[in-house]
Amino acid sequence: MNVVVLMGGWSAEREVSLISGVGIAAACRRLGHDVTEIDMGRDVAARLLAAAPDVVFNALHGSPGEDGTVQGMLDLLGLKYTHSGVATSAIAIDKALTKAFLTPLGIRMPSGRVIASASVHDGDPLPRPYVLKPVNEGSSVGVAIVTAESNYGHPIAPGAAGPWRDFDHLLAEPFIAGRELTVAVLDAPDGPCALAVTELKPVKGFYDYDAKYTDGLTVHICPADLPPDIEASALDMAARAHAALGCRGASRSDFRWDDTQGEAGLFLLEINTQPGMTALSLVPEQARVCGIDYDALVARLLASAT
Q1: Which of 195, 219, 222, 201 is nearest to 297 (CA)?
Q2: Which end of the chain has fewer beta carbons closer than 10 Å to its terminal beta carbon, N or C?
Q3: Using one digit for the tens of pLDDT, what is the confidence trace for 261-275?
Q4: Which architecture does CATH list for 113-174?
Q5: Which residues are catalytic?
Q6: Which band of pLDDT confidence, cut at 50, 70 and 90, is reported for residue 140?
Q7: pTM, full prediction
């Protein structure tokens, strides 16, 4: 096939997208495809039409590549592409919308509310400790954990570094103590297939952007050492979230588990519709544990394109 790998762009996750894209393009060439790599700019529609691909491998992360904007453009151009479509992408990138969509279906997520960022200078939106995060960014971009010992101040000072300086609105959620877990899901002929549970243990701090993408800052334990009921629950919740949102190809669901609370302490935090494909990324790692190597994973995602 003639494959375009769409990567880069201008989101906060640009560098990770470029690394993902280079790896995907190399795999496509090993699979025998003709490949054009496009670092997305404002002229992307013209460049796509000139390339005339049979399929676009969407390796973009963050907005506008993961929020339905690029998906709508590809639909208008009549091009097949990997990963989720417009509606799914628009809902999943928005953490508040995802919560509103999934919690009525019995998928446990933390309570929370969207607040004006400036309001945190007047007082805490929730009892400490709590989490503040952008409503529609991925890869833990702009996440702050506000604790009683936090150096942000009581209340948070307007000049203090944090997401309140970069985003007009934030999602405030109670902080869930415990363990960081993630589950990759792939489409299969008989429905979504949750691959495994990985536990993520940052060397220091929490699992933020640097910890995700800097070698040596996080220990991955896959499969995670978990009680069977917790493992089964995480796999089930991830597969149900993938199906309910209408995800296509691959997704990755991130969890926190308060291991003092049993199954009631397991919470889905968010679902990623275009998970990373770098050497440190979690979907390729889980696929490998399940006997699917990187090239086979790329081939599977190409085959899922519509």
Answers
A1: 195
A2: C
A3: 999 999 999 999 999
A4: 2-Layer Sandwich (3.30)
A5: 13, 139, 213, 252, 254, 270, 272, 276
A6: low
A7: 0.92
